[in-house]
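This week, think about what follows.
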Amino acid sequence: MVGEGIYCLEGSRDKAKLYGITYPHGKFFVFDIATRQTNVVGDVWRQVVYSGPRTALRSLPADIISDASGRCFYTSDGGRVAYYDPDKGTLVETGEYIPGEIYPIHAGSEAYHPFVETWAPGSDHDLYGGTNDGYVFRLDLDTLEVTNLGKPRITRRIRGLAVADDARVYGIAGEDKAICTLFSFDPRRGGYTHYGPLDVDETPYYAWRPQRFGAMVTGLDGTLYLGEEDRRGHLFILIPIQRTTDQPQGSRYRGRGADRGR
């Protein structure tokens, strides 16, 4: 794939393959780790809409995710849910669409599509996704049906999602010009809880209020790790704490910046 970069990358659950999508031409490829051979499967879009990485105009998915059966999910034109089928070696488009807006911009010269900003594995039967329009959704892996879980914040972009040990879905929302805020969704009871911006204050040694996050993941012990993508980006460690009835809502979490040397 001469002249192509790797836009997003995902390992298969059996650790035998790497799945990826290239930029700028949106080719889905499979890399076999044992044989070191790359197979270009096909295009993930029909209508090419982009003006550069991490900018407004594009319909390439910003993230992909694989499930236990080896399927790798992404979004295609108009926010359609699609996946790579490892048994057939083909790309499959479903009839489901992620929540979001599809509307003309720039005097109708180009189209704007919803796409997945971030995926998070739930149970063996579902995945959670966050979109560029700021919606969170659930994908049922048995029926391949999408459930719109709503919009936790009026601003756009879900920048990270992770599922903690208590099955709650934690996320970061915020646009480039707005401070990111933390939220959680309880799949058992429904509804969102907002915690506001993350702010680390270890006075008199250091203090830091993060502006933009670009990654979020759950560790093996249930700790949540959040990485900034701004200049002088830090790694943040978030430890969910079960709340008692006499504690205020915000005390359920402890957060700290991992690189104190800055």
